[in-house]
């Protein structure tokens, strides 16, 4: 597969979308990609320090968000540089990774070189104000399927906005999940394998049917649908019945922490804690000296897509179960952490495992040829996990059975591989738990 990648030039994105017809996912209009490379100069986009003069609050919410961080993100940087080396500086991989993580860098042709040394400030600001607000149309779903129209007209949901600095225009697109879907479905640029499909998961789930958009959850002050949020869109603007917030957090607690935005880390934690419920089902029997069946029900209560979603080849959500006796001694454990930070072998982990061309599991999504397993929880659905806990004869109650659903944005081993000596430790968030005591 790699050989094939190497001989491909960027223009062949166009043919790719035609030849890769065996997929079940949304069609990818990859031709859009090659069409937009080097199409604009970065100066055609207005820097965020202009917008901040009037949109003070929105700017402070956006700074420190994963959209602002998309290119500087140290985890992205390590993986990206690794991908570049691993594919021998192949332009298809190089350009593909950049298109969503530094859209202006891609569209202005300021990448290559992949180290970002030629990038303008605005390109380093990842997904920023002017990129989103000058989009004039979507050209499909996934793989950066958007029409950029940099210029003085800024588009969003208002039909009556007046600004002393720029023209405004109502854009229905900005009010729908299809706007987010332009980037939040990712297909492999060569074999079209679906690597991320948050939009599709939402589209096929109950929230889409009820008309609840990504914005209704992610652009509100807290988890759940917390409309309305009255306020001002600009310091000199009128009072508005509802303003969409711009922190747009997901499950990434690690990167905001690393880059010094405690507020975004806190918001992401809050969001993770709103996503699920965990319930230990009533025990029919529980006896020392026998195998005891424990059942734990995990429900995706608050996420509008699968749980987890996004780059699930890297994300880890797992169940930690423990049975302790009256003296506090542990007799059964699953989902605990080993000394090196890896999860115990017999554990339930919710994620996606991709395989390379030899069929071996890999975190290198650019080498992914197929999906080996995908075990996650669809929106508003539950899974029930079963455990056999053998408790030794003579162990004395009362016994405590506890369950905790935990999340981190990558396996610690992968982080160790990427960061080496730097010793980066990823935070783990306890999302939801339950415990019961049996006599
Ligand atoms: C000199 C002040 C000022 C500057 C600078 C400014 N804006 Fe605005 N902007 C406003 C005002 C005022 C409104 C109208 C607010 C309202 O009606 O509630 C507005 C409205 C908007 C809207 C809503 C458009 C709609 O129709 O829904 C967007 C989007 C927007 N601005 C984006 C930006 C971006 C991106 C930048 C930086 C490139 C920027 N603005 C710079 C003052 C400014
Ligand atoms: C079509 C848009 C798109 C393209 C192309 C894309 N990404 Fe991403 N990437 C995303 C989105 C959206 C997320 C966030 C998903 C999530 O939070 O799980 C993301 C997240 C990531 C993360 C996780 C960062 C973290 O802090 O945990 C890494 C690493 C990453 N991408 C690497 C890559 C690499 C390497 C490539 C090229 C092979 C690539 N991306 C191409 C959209 C894209
Ligand atoms: C990831 C894309 C994205 C980025 C980055 C982004 N916005 Fe927005 N913004 C939106 C969307 C989408 C809406 C409309 C939400 C809706 O109506 O459902 C919006 C709404 C707005 C509005 C209307 C008032 C409101 O908040 O509801 C203004 C003004 C605005 N944005 C300015 C900005 C500024 C200034 C920045 C940078 C500091 C910025 N945006 C960054 C996507 C973005
Ligand atoms: C231009 C492409 C683009 C658009 C449009 C876009 N995003 Fe993103 N988004 C990204 C990228 C790239 C990242 C990942 C940055 C990283 O992890 O390094 C991201 C990250 C996120 C995250 C944080 C993920 C985490 O792990 O915490 C959320 C939540 C999110 N986006 C929601 C949205 C929503 C909601 C919309 C629509 C209003 C939207 N995005 C529109 C490219 C985009
Ligand atoms: C009903 C509310 C709701 C809706 C609708 C919703 N989300 Fe989420 N989203 C959440 C919650 C809660 C989380 C945190 C749990 C998780 O990581 O899945 C989350 C997490 C995320 C993440 C981070 C995933 C990770 O773990 O890396 C991304 C990216 C994201 N959402 C994008 C989107 C996009 C794009 C849409 C629309 C297509 C959308 N969301 C619709 C509630 C929602």
UniProtKB/TrEMBL annotation:
It comes from the Bacteria. It comes from Candidatus Aquicultor primus. One of its GO terms (molecular function) is oxidoreductase activity. The keyword Mitochondrion does not apply. InterPro entries: Cyt_c-552/4, Multihaem_cyt_sf, Multiheme_Cytochr_ET. This is Cytochrome c-552/4 domain-containing protein. Residues 1-20 form the signal peptide. The keyword Cell cycle does not apply. Residues 50-134 form the Cytochrome c-552/4 domain. Coiled coil: none annotated. Keywords: Signal.
């Amino acid at each position: 597969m790699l050989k094939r990648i190497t001989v491909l030039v960027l223009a062949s994105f166009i043919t790719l979308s035609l030849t890769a017809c065996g997929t079940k996912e949304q069609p990818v209009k990859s031709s859009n990609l090659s069409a937009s490379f080097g199409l604009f100069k970065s100066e055609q986009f207005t820097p965020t320090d202009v917008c901040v003069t009037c949109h003070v609050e929105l700017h402070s919410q956006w700074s420190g968000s994963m959209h602002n961080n998309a290119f500087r993100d140290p985890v992205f940087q390590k993986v990206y540089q690794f991908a570049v080396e691993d594919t021998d500086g192949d332009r298809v991989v190089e350009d593909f990774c950049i298109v969503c993580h530094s859209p202006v860098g891609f569209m202005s042709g300021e990448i290559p070189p992949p180290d970002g040394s030629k990038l303008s400030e605005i390109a380093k600001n990842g997904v920023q104000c002017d990129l989103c607000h000058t989009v004039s149309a979507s050209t499909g779903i996934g793989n950066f399927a958007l029409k950029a129209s940099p210029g003085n007209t800024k588009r969003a949901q208002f039909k009556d906005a007046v600004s002393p600095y720029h023209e405004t225009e109502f854009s229905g697109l900005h009010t729908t999940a299809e706007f987010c879907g332009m980037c939040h479905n990712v297909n492999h640029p060569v074999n079209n394998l679906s690597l991320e499909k948050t939009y599709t998961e939402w589209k096929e789930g109950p929230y889409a049917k009820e008309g609840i958009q990504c914005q209704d959850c992610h652009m509100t002050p807290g988890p759940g649908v917390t409309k309305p949020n009255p306020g001002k869109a600009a310091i000199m603007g009128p009072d508005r019945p509802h303003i969409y917030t711009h922190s747009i957090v997901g499950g990434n607690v690690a990167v905001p922490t690393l880059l010094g935005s405690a507020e975004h880390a806190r918001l992401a934690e809050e969001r993770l804690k709103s996503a699920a419920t965990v319930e230990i089902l009533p025990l029919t029997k529980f006896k020392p000296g026998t195998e005891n069946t424990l059942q734990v029900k995990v429900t995706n209560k608050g996420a509008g897509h699968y749980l987890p979603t996004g780059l699930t080849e890297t994300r880890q959500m797992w169940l930690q179960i423990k049975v302790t006796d009256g003296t506090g001694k542990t007799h059964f454990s699953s989902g605990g952490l080993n000394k090196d930070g890896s999860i115990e072998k017999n554990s339930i982990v919710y994620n996606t495992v991709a395989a390379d061309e030899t069929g071996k599991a890999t975190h290198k999504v650019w080498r992914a040829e197929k999906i080996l397993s995908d075990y996650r929880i669809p929106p508003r659905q539950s899974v029930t996990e079963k455990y056999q806990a053998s408790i030794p004869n003579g162990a004395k109650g009362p016994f405590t059975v506890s369950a905790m659903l935990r999340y981190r944005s990558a396996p610690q081993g992968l982080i160790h591989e990427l960061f080496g000596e730097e010793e980066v430790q990823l935070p783990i968030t306890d999302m939801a738990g339950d415990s019961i005591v049996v006599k």
